[in-house]
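The records we work with from here on pair a chain with its fold. The integers have meaning only within a learned vocabulary of local backbone shapes. A complete example follows; check for yourself that the lines match position by position.

:::
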Amino acid sequence: KDQLVGTEVYGTPSGDHGDKAWTVRYDTMDYDEFMFSTGDCLKWLIAKKTSVFGWYSNAQRDIEKSSSSDRPYKARWYRRANN
């Protein structure tokens, strides 16, 4: 909803097995990585903030670690403005 800038707050933080989407405000926090996951946390990935930010389409982006690999690798990502 906020294009990953960290200003949106919704839902109730519910740990790794919640059944509803949620987020906390983080725009004033010091962080350098994002973790994205499916709702059941079976699939997830960790990427540096520098790999996530920017606008790109079908671009190779660095992934630090994921549910399918504990080693860094690249994958094609999309991050489009106004989506």
